[in-house]
Fold this protein.
Amino acid sequence: MTQTMAVAKALNESLRKALENDPKVLIMGEDVGKLGGVFRITDGLHKDFGEGRVIDTPLAESGIVGTAIGLALRGYRPVVEIQFDGFVFPAYDQIVTQLAKMHARALGKIKLPVVIRIPYGGGIGAVEHHSESPEALFAHIPGLKVVSPSNASDAYWMLQQAIECDDPVIFFEPKRRYWDKGEVDVSALPGDLHRAVVAQQGTDITLAAYGPMVKVCLEAAAAAANEGRSLEVVDLRSLSPIDFDTIQASVERTGRLVVVHEAPVFYGAGAEIAARITERCFYHLEAPVLRVGGFHAPYPPARLEEEYLPGLDRVLDAVDRALAF
Amino acid sequence: MSVKSTAAGASPAKGRGRTSPRGHAAKPRTGDPGLVQLLTPEGERVEHPDYAIDLTPEELRGLYRDMVLTRRFDAEAITLQRQGELGLWASLLGQEAAQIGSGRATRPDDYVFPTYREHGVAWTRDVDPLNLLGMFRGVNHGGWDPNENNFQLYTIVIGSQTLHATGYAMGVAKDGADAAVIAYFGDGASSQGDVAESFTFAAVYNAPVVFFCQNNQWAISEPTEKQSRVPIYQRAAGYGFPGVRVDGNDVLAVLAVTRAALEHARSGQGPMLVEAFTYRMGAHTTTDDPTRYRRDEEREEWASKDPIARLKTYLEREGFADEAFYAGIDAESDALAKRVREGVRNMPNPGTMAIFDNVYADGSALVDEERAQFADYLASFEDAAAGSSAGTGH
Ligand SMILES: Cc1ncc(C[n+]2csc(CCOP(=O)(O)OP(=O)(O)O)c2C)c(N)n1
């Protein structure tokens, strides 16, 4: 049963399904009730499931995540909404020092099935703290799983899989893709939550991306095709763990890799991928692994974000450089 | 142990002789002062036993002028947002008295820590209104030197600034200065851990800081009841400093109460919490849709408590202002609106390389390297364009 829907709608439907399927699932966050969240991802859920399941919380992120941990210890499966990327940090302490470690500390005897949804990334012309890409800060923490869908179908399926997962999952939603429509087969069997997929096949070079940058890479591949170049695009989908096998297989075919993300390049996901793929594919690589991403500077004011964010040209420039080796 | 004896055991009845670093014992006020009001919604002057104020007609006209100009500035900003000149605007409509009254209570050497909605307070601190718009236009993240008017940058992360204010106040006390600090925040913010921690620090160190909560009844879609089950001003008691609730739509009461609170802080008696009971008349920001969570009647109810109309009634009743005065303010409003409109439209976009500016005070090799690489990258387009135009030039 395939339906066309926007990413935001797919997330909404996914939450609805999770609430229906499991009475232990709870939605928590600021403005998730009557308002339906500032991006309307929880629209209509408060009306249909009541304020016992869809909970407007006080304006306190540490409180939201900390109490979600307690609810999870009691057998619930809280799905927490953080309103914007830059507002997760009051909760960062709870996420890093408590949520990530408790399973191990309890010798595996307890589970922490908490999902933390974070709309992230730029491109919507917002004020500061509304456009950041802090995913590496979470992927760096053992005990957390970190994923990011790039399209409606993954939004629909990955969110339900994250909620079913017994580990804490940081679920990064590419906010500037919320309004992008795509096909969702609501009756399909979902793939592995942590498996990367080849979104576009090609032979000359591999582009690895996730979340908001997958679309940019697909556009780059289309543009490059006009110039007779064949780019393969791998959508990572998961940042912790990362499916290095799929990237490796692609790089073994193409011999070149460019990693693309919005987050600053310095100490970012690209660094990890470059290092691992260099270890795994040293003799297949025709060029060093290149990275395209944000600068070592605060996310700029809205009027500069077009220049700051990696676009088609910066991706193609990196492709040129990789092919020039 | 019975409940009773637990309660008795926990009672701090025996004075612990706590003295402040500035030599004064903190003396919490007890009891519920209710809602301090000096001007009723009908514009009638009333007295309050603890908070007297005696203003000259000229001072009263000044407060009126401040409120009208602030409202006009705010309205102009909303219009500019609608016209696409601003990316976002957080309107203060309805909160003029809370902001002008408290702002006018500060002295130049006091220091203000605002959120993102304190346009009226900024006005009282002589911050150029155009400075406030850069952030909302998306050309900068702040746009003024906080030390020029002792008015800190706007803070978007809810509650953070209350800790900065407290620390600043601790510094003021260490320096032996007699200035005070005022920290603004919303009723929603009162739930943040940072705000609770700032109360703790301020109390423990007897810091000269006034916590000024504008309870405008809503935190986006969530009413105050989703943040607190007791009136916000009463929370101060739990930390050991006084709290007071003032009619936030009564500019006289806000001025009187904030003056007293700042004086309390300046004179070494430590922090104080002021809850200005007011109302956000508009949407949370220009992207918000209050019809999803708020009844129209509620807004109408509050409209009858409008802070500007109330002062105007009083001015007229007392014969403190004539037609020429109002005409003068109208002209000033129009001029301000025009200046703001033109100023915003002519506000230049930052240069691309501004991305790399001021990342560090001491510079950074990494930033320099990325800046140079990006400059080369951008130059490659110009070279290509020059090359192709040279190629096509006959
Ligand atoms: C830490 C943090 N969480 C969430 C937000 C998003 N947010 C911006 S304003 C706001 C509501 C604030 O309400 P309140 O403190 O009452 O102040 P008001 O805007 O009503 O003046 C929220 C949730 C934020 N800016 N910072």
Remarks:
- Residues 114 and 184 of chain B are 5 Å apart (CA to CA).
- The radius of gyration of chain B is 24 Å.
- Residues 1-32 of chain B have pLDDT under 50 and may be disordered.
